[in-house]
Known about the structure:
This protein is α/β, with parallel strands linked by helices. It is built from twelve helices and seven strands.
Amino acid sequence: MKISYECGACFLRQAREAMDLATDDEDLKIEITNDIFNFLSSTFKKGTNSNKTGSYMHNLIKEKTNCKDPYRNEKKLGNEIAIKYLPIAQNILKENDTLENRVKIAIVGNILDFGAFELSEDIEKLIKTSLKKDLAVKDIESFENSLKKHDKVLYMVDNTGEIVFDKLLLSKIKEYGLAITIAVKSEPILNDACMEDAVAAGLDEFGEIVEIGAGTVGYVDSEISDEFREIFNQHEFIISKGMGNYEGLTEIDLSKKDIYFLLCAKCNTIAKDIGVNLQDMLLFKK
């Protein structure tokens, strides 16, 4: 996906957050901020790829601060909090366990900032409210037909914390008899899930976990490894979580793929690109 004017402020907000997590050196932060200003001044224009821009910026911060994983503590905390509150979602499913509700809970995971929650009633209220909210785009019948038609699926995860809630959908997918391959980042970027995070959350219980061969914001096709490209090409059925994967995957030819996007439209640029309202919950086939 290409940038909009609103992405500029978002890039700078993310850069500040990453720098604050990576270093306390104020002089270094000024130096890096200047580097980012120079980078954006030459690249921030109509037609610029959003994921490539964000990836360059975050990798610059990691290199300059010598901090490989600025979000390491936040990722660990996100998984721990999500695991703590997973029984809330499981209890809700006991009352109404449908494929659609499992999809909604996976999308709720995409909404939550687990590091910001301290009280269980906050998460419980959000889950219950979201389950009552209809999906703005709901290709659930087509999704279930794909679960019945295929014998394997590539599940591309997004953030830590969120991946714990993905487990409820992954367990449902297993009931359809599909072999599941779960794709994670190879190197840390933002709070995206890497191999260590996915194993800690217990995703290896549901299928083979593979790395995409890159540490990029979302999916950047030019950066993935040959090994992952082969895995990607071998899978006709793909489930993509989150906005970053949507931004990157929609840049490539998906005409031969049976691909579904599960996300919450958390920014105006994404909402406008899809044609929905801000904060809409979506399950749609591309």
